[in-house]
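[Q] Does anyone have a clean structure-token version of this?
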Amino acid sequence: MAQNKKNYNLLVGIIALVAAILLIALVGYFVSRPKPLTIQGEAEATEYRVSGKVPGRIEEMLVREGDPVRKGDTLVIIDSPEVRSKLAQANALKRAAMSQRDKAVNGARQEQIAGAYEMWQAACVQEEVLRKSFDRIQRLYDQHVVAAQKYDEVKAQYEASKNTAAAAKSQYDMAVNGAREEDKRAATAVVDQANAAVEEVESYLSEIRLVSPADGIVSAVFPKTGELVGQGAPIMSILDLDDVWFTFNIREDYLHSMKTGDKLTLTIPALDGKQVTATVTYISVLESYATWKATKEFGQYDAKTFEVRAVPDTKVEGLRPGMSAIVVNR
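[A] Here you go.
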């Protein structure tokens, strides 16, 4: 009887020992089992920087951070007296160029034409008088009545009168015809140049009212009303919430043959764990050396980190840039 009890106690002890070993093994297995990989990223959106071409002072801010805007809405008004002054100068130069062009095209005034005609007629009369004198002196010279010197003097006067009449005729023709065609084209070109200068300044003047380049929300406003801003200085940022994607930085040994076109199921903690599907559109290695990890001490290889972008298949209401996204079952 005592021997049976002893055997029973031994059997119970062995069973208890085996149970304890199994329990410890199970606990060790669950404790040491690798935890499932969590791939976390965040939402991003296209951001537009609003800046002006002209320097000036912020006259009025028409929106604030967080305001929704539509493409073409006026956001900022800049006061730039220098541009207005440049426009006035350009307009003055344009008027002067147009006057010079009109002068070249229209030619001389009627009074100038009439004066040139009278000078021409007077030269013609003088030429006729000297022609008759030369004819008489020619006959006398042929009869050897006058000296050769007198003949030469009258002849020279006659030739000079013909040249004077021809010059007067040229002056009259010039007055009638106006400026040369080359001068007219040159004057027209100067007007075109002045018009281009005015258009250039007007284009700068239109930049004093900055408009939204896209639909979205105002994410940041940098200067305050009354502050000076330089040419090209950013004034505010606009987030386009219709162009949102998710970005993940994944080490290459966790990619698991991921490729563009793959579908991902994501959880958005900020939206009460809402699940969305997204399509991988971009996979590229990050260039920074800080994304490289040495693993050769474990007998493996050096791992690099890749940037993966995924675009949601449908618009996610309430999604904002910066919200976390967790990949489910990857």
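[Q] Thanks! Anything notable?
[A] The chain has a mean pLDDT of 79.
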